[in-house]
Amino acid sequence: MDAVADAPAPIEALRPRRLRRRKPLRFRNRLPGGRLFDVFADRPLGGRVRAARRLALLTLWTLFSVPVQAVLLLLPGKAKIRFALLYHAVLSRLIGLRVQVIGRPCPDGPVLFVSNHSSWLDIPVLGGVLPAVFVAKSEVGTWPVIRTIAYLGRTVFVSRSRGTTGREAQAMRDHMTGGGSLILFPEGTSNDGTRELPFRTSFFAIADGARQVQPVSVVYDRLGGLPACRRDRPLFAWYGDMEIASHFWQLARRSGARVTVVLHEPFPPGRLPNRKALAAETQRIVREGAERLRQNRPVVPIAPPAAPNGEAKGEAAGP
């Protein structure tokens, strides 16, 4: 009975005890060295060191590769094609990109590879995966350093002016007649990486020179080892008035970047009645693959359009 009488009233038990500490707790970094060793804060110095290291290695690799490729261009055989694949693959790795490839390039050349385009990064990424040369606008041929690399990579330049369209189209057909494959960006320009621009039908005027057309989807889907979201797209996409130097520097400071390349199933260009239908069908395939990647969903190469009833067996799609 005495214990019950001495117990505090219920309302008193609910009241908090008086705080003995009059000043709030302040936690300090106990690791030596200050901000550099603070694992919870930004590390701008580490990002700059990483970017400077990547820039130095990229420059050394390019200085070594330019004379090698210049000699290989004078020699017969496919050594120049294999070395171009190696150069671009190493270049992507030095920039900090891990390239994931789903599917395989069509071996039944010449092939017209049709891809979406969001950044200058598409050049080293696709150049390290596809044994083909790029079709680029003539302005690229005036850029310092890029111009030299493009010429050594046997890039086909187009001006898109009415007076030279026929001659440039014939040059691309001649390249494919000789057994060479082309990488085409039918959007005509890069974009913000969140969608695909309409494919221009005029770019498919040369499709009759290819044995196969293979759609390709390219999406930069990882940053810091995590799925990239819409906020991260400007770190990869290069468009508008962006400068390539500052764009490279911002990306080179980051780690854990990945790009996924989906090589969809190829098909002969004669399977579709005209270049308008060819542009629409390839855009559909490229867009579906890219949308799945942006949504972080499993992706497999998309099947080609169904063959019409009257198609000959010899026109069946490649493997």
Structure description:
The chain is an alpha/beta fold. The protein contains ten helices and eight strands. It has helices at 2-6, 10-14, 44-72, 79-95, 122-127, 146-152, 165-177, 233-236, 244-252, 275-294, and strands spanning 97-102, 111-115, 133-137, 156-158, 182-184, 212-223, 226-227, 257-263. Strands 1, 2, 3, 4, 5, 6, 7 and 8 form an eight-stranded mixed sheet that branches. A hairpin with a 2-residue loop joins strand 6 and strand 7 (226-227). The model is unreliable at 31-42 and 312-319 (pLDDT under 50).
Helix count, per DSSP? 10
Global morphology: globular
Proportion of residues in extended strands: 5-15%
| Low-pLDDT sequence parts | 31-42, 312-319
Helix share of residues? 25-40%
Into how many domains do the coordinates divide?
1
Number of strands: 8
> Structural class from helices and strands?
alpha/beta
Compute the separation of the termini in Å: 92 Å
- Spell out the helices and strands N to C: HHHHEEHEHEHEEEHHEH
Rg over CA atoms, rounded to whole Å, is 28 Å
Average pLDDT level:
81
Largest sheet: 8 strands, mixed
Outline:
This protein is an alpha/beta fold.
List key phrases describing it.
alpha/beta, 319 residues, single chain, 8 strands, globular, 36% helix, disordered C terminus, 10 helices
